[in-house]
């Protein structure tokens, strides 16, 4: 790596204190796979606390914890049975307070995952709701009679034809009360009825409780799904699918923006220094300002899915190879859509995605492609997110058979695809490429047993390359992926043009090159990245670049720091004028 950190000065970026998150780097922790402190094979809060200095050392400003609430763990905690308590597998509320204190002591902040499109079926709200048709909480969830002319429970009797994201129908039959309830995800994740004001106010009360306890904000799970078209119409059945596509009827539903604005008023108004990010699968570019235009007072930023969904036209587990430039074009189009009004979340990896270096990079050039992708992403306008292990260049894992998988999505999909005639080998090939468990293998801390994650038996296998790829080997090594991520965080903190500048794409002759400028007053930063495993011509695009090299993902002798004609495979450079 080449890095001129003397070019940075902790200057005033001009951001107002309420916009602190524009200059921040967020780190996502998937607690069950982060660090185990008590030998039960599952990560926990004490494990996280033991790594706070590591995170501070990486230049992290905000930790986002995937759900740690009490949960039967049908979907690894995205099925919450008590919003006010910590699951015993992770620790206690006292452990949480201690963790939060440790985070704040180091000048970092912590945001919780907010999972309120649905609860667990074991949440007392749902237990009451299903207890009888006239229970006062009946209407807290979405209950419907069988389709007219059908007997409940028989095939075709579901109130509509929507499929669940986790295979099968989105409706579950409740024999005791003779109705179906809606679950867009697992049947143990019944959808809450946001049209009921009592539900909304119960959620706001809970959010206020956590903020009063000291947390700094929320990442909101599938928040664009909370308002359903009340007539719940059938969806189109696409060829080869058994269920209808309900998505247009519950993504960005009729009252979504009303609810988000109400939440903002009821929870965030009058508080300072909070942060909100909405996970919004399927939200289109043209609509993004509806969520993030500050004048509308809804969310600070959203996670869109367009770039991680590239090449999945034939289904999530049948990805095609991406065309050169496809990823860059997509990221760039979102930069332009947000413009200078809205704000972006910048991510490639999370707990639902395969490892970015395996999907968008090239494992044969692991350091090069991990750092090139990171450069392309982190220098954009928006708040960058690092998912645990991404800073080490962790790769997809090697799963030998279906028994190695733990994810409910993978297990259900496997069963359904094999039953419908696909060969087990081909289903496993798809899961190996895009299955969520790739991201959920334990963080590789060192070269010792279980990669230093646990003294016990890890709940899911450790990726076999941990002896080579681990934190102990990378911290302190200036040529590591970790050190490179540290440099990217330093740049965001020390260069206002990166934190706050405008974005402008540079056209290049080779589609493999992603080139752009960031501009703030007199300052211009130019980012040149080759996102491919072949050399790529920069041509005329290089001629207009001014300034000095401040970052590159390789060592460069003094006479090679000007703008080159050709970028080597996965080469990344940042110039500053
Ligand atoms: C989100 C989460 C995912 C979960 C789903 C249902 O997409 O990121 O992990 O399975 O919502 O809560």
From TrEMBL:
User: What are the GO MF terms of this UniProt record?
Assistant: alpha-amylase activity; oligo-1,6-glucosidase activity
Q: What is its EC number?
A: 3.2.1.10
Class of the enzyme per the UniProt entry, highest EC level: hydrolase
The superkingdom listed in its UniProt entry is Bacteria
Instruction: Offer one example of a GO biological process linked to this entry.
Output: oligosaccharide catabolic process
- Does this UniProt record's set of keywords contain Membrane? no
Question: Which InterPro entries does this chain map to?
Answer: GH, GH13_cat_dom, Glyco_hydro_b, O16G_dom_2
Keywords attached to this Swiss-Prot or TrEMBL record, sorted alphabetically, are: Glycosidase, Hydrolase
Q: List, for all copies, the residue spans of the domain called Glycosyl hydrolase family 13 catalytic.
A: 28-440
Q: Which Pfam families match?
A: Alpha-amylase
Q: Does the keyword Cytoplasm apply?
A: no
Q: Which family does it belong to?
A: Belongs to the glycosyl hydrolase 13 family.
- Full protein name: Oligo-1,6-glucosidase
């Amino acid at each position: 790596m080449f890095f001129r950190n003397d070019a940075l000065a902790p200057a005033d970026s001009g951001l107002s204190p309420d916009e602190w998150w524009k200059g921040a780097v967020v780190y996502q922790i998937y607690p069950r796979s982060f660090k185990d402190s008590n030998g039960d094979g599952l990560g926990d809060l004490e494990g996280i606390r033991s790594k706070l200095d590591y995170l501070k050392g990486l230049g992290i400003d905000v930790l986002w914890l995937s759900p740690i609430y009490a949960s039967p763990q049908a979907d690894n905690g995205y099925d919450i049975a008590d919003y006010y308590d910590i699951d015993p597998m992770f620790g206690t509320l006292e452990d949480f307070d201690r963790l939060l204190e440790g985070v704040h002591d180091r000048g970092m902040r912590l945001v919780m995952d907010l999972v309120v499109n649905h609860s667990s079926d074991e949440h007392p709200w749902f237990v009451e709701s299903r207890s009888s048709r006239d229970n006062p909480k009946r209407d807290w969830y979405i209950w419907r009679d069988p389709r007219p002319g059908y007997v409940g429970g028989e095939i075709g009797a579901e109130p509509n034809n929507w499929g669940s994201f986790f295979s099968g129908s989105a409706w579950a039959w409740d024999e005791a009360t003779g109705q179906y309830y809606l679950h867009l995800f697992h049947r143990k994740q019944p959808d809450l009825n946001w049209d009921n004001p009592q539900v909304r106010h119960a959620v706001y009360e809970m959010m206020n409780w956590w903020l009063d306890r000291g947390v700094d904000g929320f990442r909101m799970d599938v928040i664009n799904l909370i308002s359903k078209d009340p007539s719940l119409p059938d969806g189109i059945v696409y060829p080869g699918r058994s269920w209808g596509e309900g998505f247009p009827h519950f993504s960005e539903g009729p009252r979504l923006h009303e609810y988000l604005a109400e939440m903002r008023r009821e929870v965030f108004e009058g508080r300072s220094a909070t942060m909100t990010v909405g996970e919004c699968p399927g939200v289109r570019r043209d609509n993004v300002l509806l969520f993030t235009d500050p004048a509308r007072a809804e969310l600070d930023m959203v996670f869109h899915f367009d770039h991680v969904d590239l090449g999945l036209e034939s289904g999530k587990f049948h990805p095609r190879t991406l065309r050169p430039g496809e990823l860059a074009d997509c990221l760039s189009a979102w930069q332009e859509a947000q413009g200078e009004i809205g704000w972006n979340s910048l991510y490639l990896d999370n707990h639902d995605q395969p490892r970015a270096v395996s999907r968008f990079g090239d494992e044969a050039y692991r350091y090069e492609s991990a750092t090139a992708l990171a450069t392309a992403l982190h220098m954009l306008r928006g708040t960058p997110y690092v998912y645990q292990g991404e800073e080490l260049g962790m790769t997809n894992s090697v799963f030998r058979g279906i028994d190695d998988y733990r994810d409910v999505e993978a297990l259900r999909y496997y069963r359904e695809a094999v039953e419908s005639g696909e060969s087990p080998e081909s289903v496993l090939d798809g899961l190996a490429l895009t299955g969520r468990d790739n991201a959920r293998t334990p963080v590789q801390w060192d070269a010792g047993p279980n990669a230093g994650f646990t003294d016990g038996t890890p709940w899911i296998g450790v990726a076999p390359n941990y002896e080579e790829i681990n934190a102990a080997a990378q911290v302190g090594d200036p040529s590591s992926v970790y050190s490179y991520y540290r440099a990217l965080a330093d740049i965001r903190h020390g260069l206002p043009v990166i934190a706050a500048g405008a974005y402008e794409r540079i056209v290049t002759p080779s589609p493999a090159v992603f080139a752009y400028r960031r501009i703030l007053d007199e300052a211009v930063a130019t980012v040149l990245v080759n996102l491919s495993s072949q050399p790529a011509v920069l041509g005329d695009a290089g001629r207009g670049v001014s300034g000095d090299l401040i970052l590159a993902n390789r060592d460069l002798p003094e006479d090679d720091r000007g703008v080159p004609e050709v970028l080597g495979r996965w080469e990344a450079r940042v110039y500053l004028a």
